[in-house]
Amino acid sequence: MRLKDKVALITGGSSGIGRETALLFAQEGAAVVVADINEAAKETVKLIEKQGGKAAYIRTDVSKASDCENMVAFAEQTFGKLNIIFNNAGIMHSDDDNAITTEESVWDLTMNINVKGVFFGCKYAIPALRRAGGGSIINTASFVALLGAATPQIAYTASKGAVLSMSRELAVIHARENIRVNALCPGPLRTELLMKFLNTEEKKQRRLVHIPMGRFGEAKEMAFAALYLASDESSYVTGTEFLVDGGITAAYVTPE
What we know:
The chain is α/β, with parallel strands linked by helices. It has one domain (7-189, 219-242): Rossmann fold (3-Layer(aba) Sandwich), CATH 3.40.50. Helices cover 44% and strands 15% of the residues. The protein is built from 8 helices and 7 strands. It has a 7-stranded parallel beta sheet, sandwiched between helices. Helix 1 (16-27) packs parallel to helix 2 (41-50), helix 3 (65-79) packs parallel to helix 4 (104-131) and helix 4 (104-131) runs parallel beside helix 5.
């Protein structure tokens, strides 16, 4: 049990990486708070309880400071402390495109959820982690924080770059407090979020041609990476861009 007696808060826990991570953390002994604006997150809690784990749901809009403050307070009130926060909630808007065609409203919405949501999560979780004697913060960035995306998604790419640089700075600031901060950088995944964006076979192939492994990653593969970063096994790991990307950032591939 790699997370025995730990309490973890996961945002965006209704589906994809969030749900898989919540289930895995619970299997590894953590009590899990699932925070999401989507009520489908209640199903994640039911699945955890069905497998004998401990979990609770709180409705949370991560773009609102008060909601993020409440989710952290809820975690402490419900399970007595907070050891791990996985700031995973994010969007990839279907109208996100290049700088010329992307509307300001799409940019603002993406930044509010993907960047401000991570900032608020850290802002309110760090005092709780201090009270617990330290802990782990995992922020979901992306391989596009390091590479330009072949299929334009300017707001999303910029937001993930912000998450990566924010994670680095927080890691440095809090390193002496036994608080570790890492950015999990997934490659292209077979999740609803990306498949909705890559909504034609042509778009899918344009992304796949760059991946040396020749396939999309699975949400569960990201959950295992998050588990390592959450556990004491990664006690000397902070400030990293933790790439789990099928080799995409290592490759120089000419599109077919």
